[in-house]
Model the fold of this input.
Amino acid sequence: MGEYQHITHSFAPVFDENSRILILGSLPSVKSREEGFYYGHPRNRFWKVLAEITGEELPKGIEEKKALLWKHGIAIWDVIASCDIIGSSDSSIRNVEPVDIQRMMGYCRIERIFANGRTAGKLYRKYLQPVTGLAAVELPSTSPANAAWSLERLAKEWGGKISL
Done:
């Protein structure tokens, strides 16, 4: 399965003063860390789902992805600032240090929080909800590991909950 590595989140959250919705993952995958941006694995459906529910074209490149988020008042980040993990396996996560969510909450008025997957939801409830005081809606993961959910099913579920 591999060796544990200590990983520190290496890129900034995406938000601005107009962000009202926050979508949290657990920690960037190996591919995302290599790319230097969120949801960088080519089979992760995050950007396809967001394009579908916003009615926008699929963004290409980091700047287009940021523009899509800003246009719709969406912020993205992860729950974990650093941890020990094997590869990209959420089930192997241990020794979690959460992000400083106050950094974002003090800058914009986040009204709704969504967790991309069960692990992000669990970690949010444990580490960040006591700080924000806001419950998060747990959405099915867009990860390729969540093969039971088709793109169409994910978009319908996400769109019904986020309702932009």
